[in-house]
Design brief:
Strand content: 25-35%
Structural class: alpha/beta
Number of helices: 9
Shape: elongated
Largest sheet: 7 strands, mixed
Distance between the termini: 40 Å
Bound molecules: flavin-adenine dinucleotide
Order of helices and strands: EHEHEEEEEEHEHEHEEEEEEHEEEHHH
Number of strands: 19
């Protein structure tokens, strides 16, 4: 069995930053990542990020992933295993992971769960036809592997993911027939929506997908208008011929390991679903388990990086590492999180966090 001070699960922006911070304070860290690439969702983000300099704003997501990986690689007390999927957490605080077709068991003094999130799907007739994709799959195909999903796409969802993926598809030469949004307003930043509209793509607010159709694969979709009570209005159907329907209706935290470990969970829709109850240092109700990033509530990579730093420092400090560094890191991280969650864009997150405490 492998033993270490801290195991970090997930090498996205949260997990990489947690590993870097804990190692910089002197703790021995084992970072486990199920993918063969580092960076989590950042590996498919070819666009430049918003935010502040402290969280790599104006850099492309793919470059932030490389920078964080290089920084983690500089610490001799960080071991990274890629292609290592953590499968289970057991009563005695041992975890198992599948790595290169064998099972390894690991016992750490502290765990930082930074597993990110999974995409939500939508129920509608024929949603299992070839050509129906999640936005993450479309981004991975296009931006990581250079493979186009099809020729003409209907995007469902106008949050930032739907808008950004639509724009990236246009850049890759794919037609975007339209973006369908059930809410009466566009969900994502208007700056992204404006770019899409300038390219001539219609955004149908208060519309939903009624069904997809096709024999062997998607040949088109019917969309229909919703009234102010979100009920479909018959007679408003529009037939849109496409070979791809891309679903971008939100993310839900990947919390299975936290449920297994018996962490107290709470349903907070503003943060994407069931999320772990934790204190300000990101310690869950199981005192040896910390969380950081989208698994603790859907936000953005900027907040995930800051949370990773905070969780890494809290875990290392609880083991006696860092001689007094924790207070300063904590103060800075909490100030950065407050700033990232300020203003109208952070209102939903602030509301969700309040529910979590209350
Ligand atoms: C289209 C799109 C555009 C975005 N644009 C921006 C933007 O402009 N600015 C911004 O700040 N944010 C943006 N984001 C959001 C940002 O990418 C995420 O919030 C961020 O990646 C979350 O980081 P994370 O480390 O929590 O999770 P992730 O990046 O999802 O990383 C989690 C990692 O954990 C691994 N993992 C999961 N389960 C296991 C397991 N059991 N064992 C081992 N490993 C596991 C996963 O493989 C993954 O690598 C965007 C997201 C998308 C999809």
């Amino acid at each position: 069995m492998i033993t270490t001070d801290i195991v970090v699960i997930g090498a996205g922006p949260a997990g990489l930053n947690a590993a870097i911070t804990a190692a910089s304070m002197g703790a021995n860290v084992l970072l486990l990542e199920r993918n063969v690439l580092e960076g989590g969702q950042l590996i498919k983000q070819t666009h430049k990020f918003f935010g502040s300099k402290a969280q790599h704003a104006a850099a492309r997501g793919i470059d932030i992933a490389k920078a964080l990986y290089q920084s983690a690689s500089q610490y001799p007390n960080v071991t990274m295993k890629f292609g290592a999927t953590v499968l289970g957490y057991y009563e005695d605080g041992v975890i198992t992971a599948e790595h290169h077709e064998s099972i390894i068991t690991i016992k750490a003094k502290k765990y930082i769960v930074a597993t990110g999130a999974a995409e939500k799907s939508l129920p509608f007739p024929n949603n299992d036809l070839p050509g129906i994709y999640g936005a993450g799959a479309v981004q991975t195909l296009t931006n990581v592997y250079g493979v186009l999903p099809g020729k003409k796409v209907l995007m469902i969802g106008s949050g930032n993911i739907g808008l950004i993926v639509s724009y990236q598809l246009l850049q890759a030469g794919v037609q975007v027939a339209g973006i369908v949004e059930a809410a009466p307003e566009i969900g994502g930043y208007l700056v992204h929506a404006a770019k899409i509209r300038r390219a001539g793509v219609p955004i149908y607010t208060s519309y939903t997908i009624k069904e997809a159709y096709g024999t062997e694969m998607v040949e088109g979709a019917l969309i229909m208008q919703l009234d102010k009570n979100w009920q479909p209005l018959s007679g408003t159907e529009i037939d849109i011929p496409v070979d791809v329907v891309c679903i971008a209706v939100g993310l839900t935290p990947l919390t299975e390991l936290l449920w297994q470990a018996g962490c107290k969970m709470k349903y907070v829709p503003q943060l994407g679903g069931h999320i772990p109850v934790r204190d300000e240092n990101l310690t869950t109700t199981v005192s040896d388990i910390y969380v950081a990033g989208d698994v603790s509530g859907i936000e953005e990579a900027s907040a995930a990086m800051v949370e990773g730093k905070l969780a890494g420092a809290a875990a290392a400090s609880s083991l006696g590492y860092g001689s007094g560094k924790f207070a300063e890191i904590r103060r800075e991280a909490l100030a950065q999180l407050a700033e990232l969650r300020s203003g109208p864009a952070g209102a939903k997150i602030r509301k969700g966090l309040k529910l979590l405490v209350g």
